[in-house]
Amino acid sequence: MAMQAQEIEDLIRTAFPDARITITDLAGDGNHYAAEVIDESFRGQNRVQQQRAVYAALKGAMDGPAGDLHALALTTKAPD
Fold first, then answer.
1. What does the pLDDT read at residue 1?
2. pTM for the whole thing?
3. Could you list the residue range(s) of the whole structural domain that residue 38 is in?
4. Which residue stretches of 1-80 are H helix?
């Protein structure tokens, strides 16, 4: 089952309410997205820690074959 970009943003926004979030559908199929998440809470964290936090916010949407989201190219950082 495919996900809409707004669904992905809503899940991320729940965990990061003040973040700047940009979701891009890479293939037009609802399964391959890119997300950029810029949030102050990432300051002092390495990239792996930041991305784990975002994946946790997706609440299982990417969990193997049963997940609704097949691929997410993720960029995370603290604001400049």
1. 59
2. 0.88
3. 5-77
4. 5-15, 47-57
